[in-house]
Amino acid sequence: MANKPLYKSLPDSKLERKRNIDIHFNHEQITIPESLKKFAKGKTYFIHTFGCQANYRDEEIMAGMLEKMGYTKSDDINSADFILLNTCAVRENAEQKVYGQIGNLKIVKEKDKTKIIALCGCMVQQKHVIETVIDKYKHVDLIFGTHNIDELPSMLEEVVLKKVRLVNVKSLPGDIRENLPSARLSKFKAFVNISYGCDKFCTYCIVPYTRGKERSRLMEDVINECKELRDAGYKEVTLLGQNVNAYGKDFKDGTSFAHLLEEVAKLGIPRVRFLTSHPWDFTEDMIDVIAKYPNIMKYIHLPVQSGNDEILRLMNRKYTSKTYKELVDKIRAKIPNIALSTDIIVGFPNETYEEFLDTVEMVNYVKYDSAFTFIYSPRKNTPAAEIKDNVTPAEKSKRFKELVKALEVTVGESSARMVNNTYDILVESVSEKDPTMMSGYTESNKLVHFKGDTSLIGEIVKVKINESHTYSLIGELVND
Ligand code: SAH
Ligand code: SF4
Ligand code: F3S
Questions:
Q1: Would you place residue 161 in the very low, low, confident or very high pLDDT band (cuts 50, 70, 90)?
Q2: Which tens digit of pLDDT belongs to each residue from 387-443?
Q3: What's the chain's Rg over C-alpha atoms?
Q4: Which of 153, 201, 398, 437 has the highest CB neighbour count under 10 A?
Q5: Which residue has the least CA distance to atom 11 on ligand 1?
Q6: Beta strands in 311-406 (DSSP E)
Q7: Is 175 among the domain residues?
Q8: Close Cβ partners of 175 (under 8 Å, ≥ 6 residues apart)
Q9: In three state form, how does the secondary structure of 10-63 look?
Q10: Same domain, yes or no, for 240 and 381?
Q11: CA 102, CA 384: separation in Å to the nearest integer?
Q12: CA–CA separation, 104 vs 100, rounded Å?
């Protein structure tokens, strides 16, 4: 099907920085062209999502639109008629994985030219990626950006009818679209967007460019979505934003995340979570709301990135190690059983070993219950990527290992403390390693395996912990 590319729009990183744009809300239902319904009848789709929860939520919306067109879901990438790779650009290795997958699809397309292969997500918000794909991966038919998702039906129609390779990647966000169809990936846990984009511009990070200006959904739209999920029996709802604490600030009418979180908690969903909190504007009100409602999980993901003030300044994180520790102390004073997790970047340009040791010191101070660790990866067009870096990759990976060791101690201690206690577990799946075991998560987001059967999936059960394996726990089902 691939022919000459038709460029409708291309991303421009300078334009992606723009923040003084008006945002409008659009509650109209989407319409599906009749010709597309005829085309999609009897056909299947497959979506492979890389990256964060924002991308998974986008997958659900796109799946919803495809099902409305008449496509049905396939679990096999090789046999699907429409194959979509929903990409992530946060680190180099995320992009390498995607390129590998695009490469694999070449023979799939050669065997059957009627298949449509598409790319979307954060990676294609970069012009150089589009150029590479158009040039080297001629089997890709459609490329569309994070701000073009709602145009999926008309874009597909164009690819099908005009037999073009279509590129449509806008630099700026359009309206906030409500009422888009959605095919949720889980029947018991759900992600609900509360805001899109990010205005923090941490100097290493590509997300403010790929996802655009920070913009909040209307409170009533968020609440209505949560009510629908509650009424459909969902056990867990996670409120999603790159920086949830900034929720509502763009309305300039006093709307706050603390207020939204309280209103969602009042709906009575058994488990309410939120992701991600920036340490810079984590308010006292938020702490009070988390403390007050038993159904708000006592777990906060609080990315620290580094424990050194100079590195934090160069990262544009807007807090110091002292103010971060004060925040942790304040949270622990009001919510003593809180579990804390974090994200850490090792090897920011020119980070010295002494500066790195401040991060290890931070880990030992906070005693994180869990953590995600990354080696710094330069991202084109971000300010940090301009800095000439004198630290070798070997040195960076040595520090990375040292950090992982320090975390193993705090995570191990936190898991060991749970042995002999009983916890509520939301059961998610059969254990990957042992088909007689079920797996699920505690309130503090610890992974627990226990003997059980599949009828428990989607239920909250009580499990007594018998063994700790640092990053997972083994327990046994107990009757109430
Ligand atoms: N908005 C969230 C998530 C951002 S991406 C937040 O602020 O926490 C998730 C994590 O990826 C970040 O917290 C950071 O630790 C990591 N990350 C982002 N850009 C990176 C880069 N260029 N190199 C390495 N890690 C990066
Ligand atoms: Fe990236 Fe910083 Fe925004 Fe998180 S807060 S998405 S790390 S710019
Ligand atoms: Fe990746 Fe985009 Fe999320 S870069 S981490 S998919 S916002």
A1: confident
A2: 999 999 999 999 999 999 999 999 999 999 999 999 999 999 999 989 999 999 999
A3: 23
A4: 153
A5: 90
A6: 339-346, 370-375
A7: no
A8: 23, 24, 25, 26
A9: CCCHHHHCCCCCCCCEECCCCCCCHHHHHHHCCCEEEEEECCCHHHHHHHHHHH
A10: yes
A11: 28
A12: 6
166 pairs with which residues across the strands? 6, 142
Per-residue DSSP letter, 316: T
Could you report the per-residue pLDDT of 317-342, keeping only the tens digit for each?
999 999 999 999 999 999 999 999 99
* pLDDT at position 3 over 90: no
- Give nearest CA residue, ligand 2 atom 4: 242
- Answer whether residue 355 is part of any domain: yes
Of 416, 432, 451, which marks where a domain is finished?
Answer: 416
Asked if 413 and 366 touch (Cβ cutoff 8 Å), the reply is no
How remote is the CA of residue 312 from the centroid of ligand 1, in Å? 13
348 residue type, one letter: F
What pTM was computed for the model? 0.97
Give the position, in ligand 1's atom list, of the atom nearest the Cα of 241: 1
Compute the distance between CA of residue 247 and CA of residue 326 in angstroms, rounded to an integer: 23
CA–CA separation, 255 and 218 (whole Å): 10
- How far is Cα 63 from Cα 369, in angstroms, rounded to an integer? 35
Share of the chain above pLDDT 70, in %: 99
Q: Are residues 215 and 299 in the same domain?
A: yes
The per-type count for the chain, helices as H runs and strands as E runs, is 14, 22
Q: Is the CB of 315 under 6 A from ligand 1?
A: no
Question: Per the domain annotation, does 174 fall within a domain?
Answer: no
Tell me the per-residue pLDDT of 287-323, one tens digit each, with 9 for 90 and over: 999 999 999 999 999 999 999 999 999 999 999 999 9
In tens, the pLDDT along 433-478 reads 899 999 999 999 999 999 999 999 999 999 999 999 999 999 999 9
Q: How far is the CA of 90 from the centre of ligand 1 (A)?
A: 7
301 φ, ψ to 5°? -90, 115
Ligand nearest to the CA of 204: 1
pLDDT band of residue 1 (cuts 50, 70, 90) is very low
| Count of structural domains, the chain | 3
447 shares a domain with 398 = no
